[in-house]
Amino acid sequence: MELTLAAAFASSALLLSNLASIMLASSRLKARRVIAVPSGKQPPLSIVVPSRGVEPFTEETLQRAFSLDWPHYELIFCVAHADDPVVKLINAAIARYPNVPARLLTGDDRISANPKLNNCVKGWEAARHDWVILADSNVLMPKDYVQHLMAAWRPDTGLVCSTPTGSRPDGFWAEVECAFLNTLQARWQYAGEALGLGFAQGKSMLWNKPMLDANGGIHALAAEIAEDAAATKLVNGLGLRVNLVASPFEQPLGQRTFGEIWSRQARWARLRRVTFPLFFAPEILTGVAMPLLLALVAAASAGISLPTTALCVLLIAYVPECMLAWAKGWYLSPRTITAMIVRDAMLPAIWARGWLGGAVEWRGNAMIIRTKAMTELEESV
């Protein structure tokens, strides 16, 4: 009896925390809306875009970057190697939009073991304006991209960022990626912000350049292997807050394979484990695996139907997730719940992988992630 009650209580508590996180995230998130450029003079800004390789939506994301309705902005594209095939597409876009100030910078500044951060250094140093956005090349910027970021800036803000929301999946494994990005990772990030535990996400990061330069500049983000983890610690150390945009920006996915998802999630898990171990440890309790296991233990002890118990747990877990996605305009399909089940089946293995050493993959590179940004980076053969 005691085992039954304990397992039932623990399962219920985890399901309630899952529901609470959805409600907290929903309170912070807003349905997508267009923000007009505020009246009056607006500050110019620089958008630094680190790029590597050609992806399925590269031409569209480039076109979006050149089509923002902010009055004055410059684009600085950064590519580590001049022979990268994306260089041709960037140069063509620069020529196609002569009215938007834009430059392409090549070369690699090895200030850390983080390839993306190294690629950004030259762009940060070349930026002409006091406001700088570091934006990943696969962010699908809406026309009011800058307005959304600026609207989230407050007097006590040190950084504004946006988690990516997956869109346009092509195939089932891309739908699994949507399940990871949207109603799991984005949901918990917004729930954390609601609790005063906001943390950075490197997809889109709005900085006040004089503020960061006064505290070590972009080199300060090399303090951790993940630049967003370093950013979070730096901003919190200054007594400032990390704020999220009210409506996160899309990342179109296209096709994905199981191997690609595993590699990416294993890398992120290992990074979280190294940079924020106390927050990473309870991640095993997210998802449905633990409450389902505990509920089945309680049902077996009480003689209750196991299939009925499992169905009830899945409905309690996934219906609110789907409602959150529907309310915020995120991707939904008839396969979404199946994708969520597969995601949650992967989570315990991903969590366990985060505690182990060894190499993880980053765009063809084998990364061995250690604590205190002690990382070896080897080119894969």
Overall 3D shape: elongated
CATH superfamily of the largest domain: Spore Coat Polysaccharide Biosynthesis Protein SpsA, Chain A
Order of helices and strands: HEHEHEHEHEEHEHHEEHHHHHEEE
What class, by secondary structure content?
A: alpha/beta
Mean pLDDT: 91
The count of β-strands is 12
Residue runs with pLDDT of under 50 for 5 or more positions: 372-381
Which strand order do you get reading across the main beta sheet? 3-2-1-4-7-5-8
Total domains:
2
Per DSSP, what share of the residues sits in E-state strands of 2 or more residues? 15-25%
Fraction of residues in helix: 40-55%
Q: In the CATH classification, which architecture of the largest domain applies?
A: Alpha-Beta Complex
Main sheet specs: 7 strands, mixed
The number of helical runs is 13
The radius of gyration computed from the alpha-carbon positions, rounded to a whole number of angstroms, is 21 Å
Distance between the termini: 57 Å
- What would the CATH topology of the largest domain be? Spore Coat Polysaccharide Biosynthesis Protein SpsA, Chain A
Question: Which CATH class of the largest domain applies here?
Answer: Alpha Beta
